[in-house]
Amino acid sequence: MFRRASGILLHLSSLPGRHGLGDLGPAAYRFADFLHRAGQTWWQMLPIGPLGGSNSPYDSPSSHAGNPLFISLELLAQRRLLDEEDLAPSRQLLLTRRSRYQSNMRYAGPRLRKAFERFRARASPEDRRAYEEYAHDNRDWLEDFALFSALRAPAQEAVEVRGSSSSAWSSWEPGVRDRAPAALSSALGRLAEEVDFHRYLQFEFDRQWQSLRGYCAERSIRLLGDLPMFVAYEGADVWSHPRLFFLDAEGKRTVVAGVPPDYFSQTGQRWGNPLYRWDEHAEKSFGWFVSRVGRTLARFDAVRLDHFIGFHRYWEIPAESESATVGRFLPAPGAALLERLRAAFNGLPFLAEDLGLVTPEVRALAERFELPGMRVLQFAFGEGAEQYLPHRYTANCAVYTGTHDNDTAVGWFEALAPTAEGRRERRRVLDYLGSNGRQVHWDLIRVASMSVADLAIFPLQDLLGLGSRARMNVPGTAAGNWSWRFEEAALTPAVAEHMGKLTALYGRSPAAPGDTPFRSGP
């Protein structure tokens, strides 16, 4: 599907900046400039929704909304919605080299409210009209999300909680929990300003996002997004559409999502997301999925379908079970859903994350819809993993040195040494790459770049040759993840030049501005 090209995987949160978290501001534009100098076509990100549990981008309270913490305060100040003194960072945030989500939230929250107040008081007629048009065009999801956000806002106590201090929506007053029209109308009346605040944040996020996307497009850089298979229980989607999920009469989960033991975890992973009632989705012509994918494609040029295995079958875990080892596989209507998406969007600009317990049926589903799958070089050198070796690829796939769930290339290679099997695998790596191991990250990038795979994606950590401390996520763990950020000084001209040479040498240089990033025809 993709033209022959390459790109870099970097989440927005990993950008440098003064406020403890990467955002859509100047550092994002400078990174786009780096991609351009390095001859890259794609910038891949993780999901960009609002903050989820354990700071995970894969557990967001909305499948449609953008993360307000990614709104650039600098850009707000440029439009005089904030003052320059509002940008003075705290010492803690200024000195940190990691993402500090909660500290950033405490810092940015009052400033975002100040920008909202100024917008309401000072916005030009053109800005007001743009805001009203945005709210109208996105009302199918925005109204529920804004009300949901207002109802769970920590600063207000508008919703009575029955017998506990829990903020879970299933513990809300029954009328609001069950979305009784009179209760929702009353809540909207009480929380009108708070609801408008959350509408405004999404408008501002979208405005900054589209500006950055346009800047990237002018430099022939495309954006590759990420669509989680499941959504967070504590989110607007489940509260707004409870019939689409397996819930009991009080809105609590009866079964949850996860995966059985696999490469990433010997005990499997209990994700806890509610599972879909596929019969309800099919009866509604998969309308919620169409809306969700459409919102994602309004921001990205193509989308990685996370956990593509779930389009064929999914692992059902009883909600009361604390272990992912207890569960069963059940079928999913992936073919019918993909047919519906293809009809809705006149094509399928998707990349299938087909890692893990992949069955022939999963492969057949991806091949039926000509969806490129993923090949990860870190998986290629163990016993019985020959399908991940570059000389076995077909063109219609994407090769990665590693993903956000892997160790960095350097960290992975260094960890091979202690065991006998690890030493054998290390020897296979060196022999295959023709490498002495001193710059194994560049050797992996070179082999991936020369492969026949249409798309090659490299985590920025691997371009920089960073070790395990730069790892983004360790699956199955809840603490310490999603916090890596790079230092801007690391993006040297030498790194850009070397990456650019490899890109040009192996025929992955960007197409001319305005050209499609996809191959035409089958």
Task: Return the average pLDDT rounded to an integer.
Answer: 93
The proportion of residues forming helix, as a percent range, comes to 25-40%
Cα separation of the termini: 8 Å
Percent of residues in beta strands: 5-15%
Rg calc: 23 Å
The low-confidence runs, each spanning 5 or more residues with pLDDT under 50, are 154-165
**Strand numbers in spatial order across the main sheet:** 9-6-3-2-1-12-11-10
Tell me the structural class.
alpha/beta
What can be said about the biggest beta sheet? 8 strands, parallel
Number of strands: 12
Shape: globular
Number of discrete helical segments: 19
Helix and strand topology:
Layout: E1 5-9, H1 26-37, E2 42-44, H2 73-78, H3 91-95, H4 101-122, H5 125-137, H6 139-151, H7 174-177, H8 181-190, H9 192-218, E3 222-227, H10 236-240, E4 255-259, E5 269-274, H11 278-283, H12 287-297, E6 302-305, E7 313-318, E8 328-331, H13 334-345, E9 350-352, H14 360-368, E10 373-376, E11 397-400, H15 409-414, H16 420-433, H17 440-450, E12 455-459, H18 460-463, H19 493-505
Parallel strand pairs: 1-2, 1-12, 2-3, 3-6, 6-9, 10-11, 11-12
Antiparallel strand pairs: 4-5, 4-7, 7-8
Helix pairs in contact: 5-6, 6-9, 12-13
